[in-house]
Write a structure and sequence with these properties.
binds flavin-adenine dinucleotide, D-Amino Acid Oxidase, Chain A, domain 2, alpha/beta, 19 strands, about 425 residues
């Protein structure tokens, strides 16, 4: 049984030279067969494995990761969590995710450092103000918290904001938005899943599928073939590569998305700020680094590195909005490979191969969706039916034309 983390345990281990901690999860060897297999040890795969066990009582489950847990986008993102979407389907899904984040530290007995510090979206011209009004109304109609403020109030609330060329005319605040520690989210789900009996298997790459008469029967991996007639894929930027091994062609394209952090400084920014016009979004981590996000490269790629033009553009935006930050030095820069769908809405559910399910299409914004994405993929795998929150997110929409174009509607990177 996994020992609970608590203040008492901290005290006890402090007196015991930290010798009594056990590993957070069991590093399992693959068995020959499982009731269900989840491919991908990012947040979505781990959450799926956890909810398969927790919500549906499946314990004979394997989570297979080719590298290390959280080594994909989950450990590379800028950790912003929000639910400021336009369409009701998106708002309901992402707000459910925020709600799961709100109780996650307690539910999983793991401090994910969720800080609901709010997120501001700024408008710099009258069209931008109009868009914010529409977003605020849509969010409220969808039951999501949204406060619209004029420019003077925004500058009062974010004193470091001092733009010279782009006046701030308005700001839309989602007070419940915030940030969380990304790798803690992966580790929390891994620990929770392992405690419920899930085999967490790292360094095991899926190289192919066993398929008979349209039914999936197992996966071929770098550590042998593992049988199961219920398999879920949650491999983000590698979705089209892994799906192709099952003969599927997905409407997903992979791009590098990059971010960087400054050297750590004392607390100076207590919220998340997004300025779409200048391509800037940033927050301050608990370590003190300014976490600065940039956009997608303009070409498809699997190269895990950023490009100078985007860094330059993002840095220029930050300096324009926050001149005081111009004296900070860069500390680190990195990229992740994200899975972009042309209507900027995720795909969750059954594939054309019986027993093979998928969770992908998160693009630049799937960290905030981890709890809900895992919850809904687990539901689909366990019941064979889409969860009500994800009914509009199946592959079927590419056949019927029922696309949900959130990138255009909410006007923000997805
Ligand atoms: C720079 C950057 C900033 C971002 N900022 C935000 C943000 O602020 N807010 C937000 O909500 N989202 C953000 N995102 C997006 C978010 O990180 C992703 O959408 C999310 O982490 C996807 O999670 P995942 O579990 O689907 O994928 P991943 O975490 O990428 O996990 C997929 C896993 O599958 C494994 N895998 C791949 N192929 C195989 C195989 N053949 N066999 C076995 N395993 C395999 C990989 O090794 C990987 O660990 C950002 C992304 C990046 C790159």
């Amino acid at each position: 049984m996994t020992r609970a983390y608590s203040a008492l345990a901290l005290l006890r281990e402090g007196l015991n030279a930290q010798r009594g901690w056990e590993p957070a999860w069991r590093d399992a060897e693959p068995k020959r067969a499982y009731d269900a297999i989840v491919i991908g040890g990012g947040g979505h795969g781990l959450a799926t494995a956890y909810y398969l066990a927790k919500n549906h009582g499946l314990a004979n489950v394997a989570l297979i990761e080719r590298g290390w847990l959280g080594g994909g986008n989950t450990g590379r993102n800028t950790t912003v969590i929000r639910s400021n979407y336009f369409f009701p389907e998106s708002a309901a899904f992402y707000d459910f995710s925020v709600k799961l984040y709100e109780t996650m530290s307690r539910d999983l007995n793991y401090n994910i450092m969720f800080s609901q510090r709010g997120m501001w979206m700024l408008a710099h011209d009258r069209h931008g103000v109009e868009m914010l009004r529409r977003s605020a109304n849509a969010m409220r109609l969808n039951g999501v918290d949204a406060d619209l403020h004029d420019g003077a109030e925004v500058l009062r609330r974010i004193p470091q904001l001092a733009p010279t060329r782009f006046p701030v005319l308005a700001g839309l605040l989602q007070p419940r938005a915030g940030t969380a520690r990304h790798d803690a989210v992966a580790w929390a789900y891994a620990r929770g899943a392992s405690a419920l009996g899930v085999d967490v298997i790292q360094n095991c790459e899926v190289t192919g599928f066993e398929i008979e008469s349209g039914h999936v029967k197992g996966v071929k991996t770098s550590r042998g073939t593992i049988a199961s007639d219920c398999i879920g894929m949650a491999v983000a930027g590698h979705s089209s590569v892994v799906a192709a091994k099952a003969g599927l062609k997905l409407p997903v394209q992979s791009y590098a998305l990059q971010a960087f952090v400054s050297e750590p400084v004392k607390p100076c920014l207590d919220t998340v700020v997004l300025s779409p016009a200048t391509g800037t979004y940033l927050s301050q981590s608990d370590k003190g680094e300014l976490v600065i996000g940039a956009g997608l490269d303009l070409y498809l790629s699997y190269a895990l590195r950023g490009s100078l033009p985007w860094m330059e553009r993002a840095a220029a935006g930050v300096v324009e909005m926050f001149p005081a930050f111009s004296r900070l030095r860069f500390l680190r820069q990195w990229a992740g490979i994200v899975d972009v769908v042309h209507d900027s809405t995720p795909i969750i559910g059954q594939t054309p191969i019986d027993g093979l399910y998928i969770n992908c299409g998160w693009g630049t914004g799937g960290f905030k969706a981890i709890p809900a994405g895992g919850w809904c993929l687990a539901h689909a795998m366990a019941t064979g039916k889409p969860h009500t929150l994800a009914e509009a997110f199946t592959l079927e929409r590419f056949r019927t034309g029922g696309l949900i174009d959130e990138a255009s509607a909410s006007g923000i990177a997805h």
